[in-house]
Amino acid sequence: MITKDQIRDYLDKLRLSTRLDNDGDIVFSFNPDDDFGYPVVVTIVVENGFRVSFMAGAVGYEPAGDPLFLANRNNARRNYPTAVVRDGHVRMEYSVVLREEVSDDYIMHTVLGQTLSSIWSAYVDLEKETVK
Amino acid sequence: MITRDFIKECLEILDLKYSELDDGCIAVSFYDQDFFPYQVVTYIRVIRDELLTFSTQALDYHPEGDLMAMANRHNCRSHSPSCYIDSDGDIMMDRAFVFEHEVSPHYILNDVIRPSIYLPLESFVNFELTDSEIEEKMRK
Q: Torsion over CA of B120, B83, B80 and A87, rounded to 10 degrees?
């Protein structure tokens, strides 16, 4: 059983500042930089005590190119997150099921740290023909 | 750390038949005419003892329609597995897990391997259905 408070504590330990939205879900934001010039807002939802879901959008970002093609290319070359097109916008989504026992480090570094980092990288690379 | 031997052990616990391919990949194959009339194969790879990937394909399954739009529809309703259309026009269903930190064997068996075999099967069965058709199917 995992709770929203636990997830928020792990994010605090990773020194990632979060807030709660109106639904009480955890929100983490990436600031724009030279690699990607739009803020990326990630909502983290804990469902039923065992599923941690990530839903991300880049505020104001309209990719140059067919969103379906770009999302498909992301999904073909990245293990995660999954790029989905909703209302013409490319969003990054991912979820992890934690019914069975895992270590704190796995939740903190793999489930949270790596997923958040991958979401940012996915936006950075979305329009690139090739990625490293 | 995760090993091919442990994956094989889990597949045996799940009573799943598998074959080992020359490239080191483990393949699990399903065919049930009534459930889905194409052979569905999941290729399992262990990379550097810490990355476990599942890539599932339905052999000779080429539905009509805009495949990228259909893949996106699948991903909007469930991004596990993640669906994409590869360069050959084949529909792929993928899942991947990184194991740099400790997890229990039960986690790998029940939260990783079991759903990575069964969820893609269900995804292929539902691939051509609209959301309302799936809802109706669930009601029956």
A: -140
Name the residue facing A68 among B69, B96, B110 (closest C-beta). B69
**Short-list B18, B20, B37, CA closest to B29:** B18
Q: What are B18-59's pLDDT values in tens digits? A: 999 999 999 999 999 889 999 999 999 999 999 999 999 999
Map residue B41 onto helix, strand or coil: strand
pTM of the shown model: 0.95
The contacts of residue B39 (CB under 8 Å, 6+ apart) are: B29, B30, B31, B58, B59, B60
Alpha-carbon A50 to chain mean position: 17
**Chain B residues 63-92 with CB within 8 Å of chain A:** 68-69, 71-72, 75-76, 79-80, 82-87, 92
Of A79, A86, A102, the CB nearest to B76: A86
Q: Chain A: nearest CA to B75, how far in angstroms?
A: 6
Cα–Cα distance, A63 to B5 (Å, whole number): 44
Indicate the helix (H) or strand (E) that contains A18.
strand A18-20
- What distance separates the 2 farthest-apart alpha carbons in chain B? 45
Q: What is the ipTM of this complex?
A: 0.94
